[in-house]
Amino acid sequence: MPIVRAMTVPVPPSALVPIVGVSACRRTWEDTFVVHWVMQRNLEAILEASGCVPLAVPAMARHFPDGAIDSILDRLDGLLLTGSPSNVEPHHYGAEPFEGDLNDPDRDATTLPLIRGAVRRGIPVLAICRGIQELNVAMGGSLYGKLHEAPGHRDHRSDKTRPRGVRSAREHPVAISGQGLLRRIIDADRIVVNTLHAQGIREPAPGARINAVSDDGVIEAIDFPESPGFVLGVQWHPEITHDTDENSHALFEAFGAAVRAYAGADAAGGLLTAAE
Fold first, then answer.
1. Which listed residue (156, 197, 237, 249) is catalytic?
2. Of 129, 134, 156, 253, which residue is the catalytic one?
């Protein structure tokens, strides 16, 4: 796979190219080097399907000077919250820690205030997998720490015995609500998605609207109809299939339209808010 492929949405050289902040995870490489990691498919989806420039935001807010979160938001036209093997620390939603939980407290310290600030300002937000969980927690909701142990829910974790490329294949259907931002983007009652997650939304945040559920009742998508801008979270991974699946592409295309409208780069506007 090439490092960067050409954008499918041509942008005139004189035009303002919107910038989308992309959440990064903190990792330790070879037990020595600390790195801030973003999967390339997220960056490609923003470039190719949204027509924007992605800019990774390091998970370093605990080291930022005062006012840094607001300074970052001043410079962003959109925010993409990516998936990750790590989970939001349980104390952020009033739960107890548990054995075997993989956390990234530096990411939490960075993304949670970014989310609240972005939503408050009307900066478009697209949240994927861990991202929808962060979005829900940042706005006051809670999570199932171990979704596969919750009554009535099956195991949504990936099968580690399968090849990596196969694990991300579309696995199960979700029912899309007749009302909501997701329905405005994907006009279908039901789609098949690629969800790979150990946790899930338990109590939706105040103001959140459920946009989609799986066949075992897991909340798969939410929006915030009273927010001043585009805010959408999905539990699956559209970034992986943005160039092979029309529904995945449509999500990033709609997000890009909202980002350009926020940036003032698209005079025609876009899909701005969930309430419209």
1. 237
2. 129
Which domains are delineated in the chain?
Answer: 19-263 (3.40.50.880)
The CA-CA-CA angle for residues 230, 234, 239, to 5°, reads 95
Active-site annotation holds for 237: yes
Q: CA-to-CA distance for 103 and 192, rounded, in angstroms? A: 29
Which of 169, 213, 187 is CA-nearest to residue 271?
187
Is 268's pLDDT higher than 50? no
Angstrom distance (rounded) from CA 134 to CA 127:
8
Taking the model in full, what pTM does it have?
0.85
pLDDT at 151: 62
- 44-78 confidence digits (pLDDT tens): 999 999 999 999 999 999 999 999 999 999 999 99
For the chain, counts of helices (H) and of strands (E): 7, 13
Active site residue 276: no
- 48 flagged as catalytic: no
What is the distance between the alpha carbons of residues 276 and 266, in angstroms, rounded to a whole number? 18
5-14, 126-135, 138-147, 222-231: segment of lowest average pLDDT: 5-14
Which candidate in 44, 220, 239, 253 is catalytic?
239
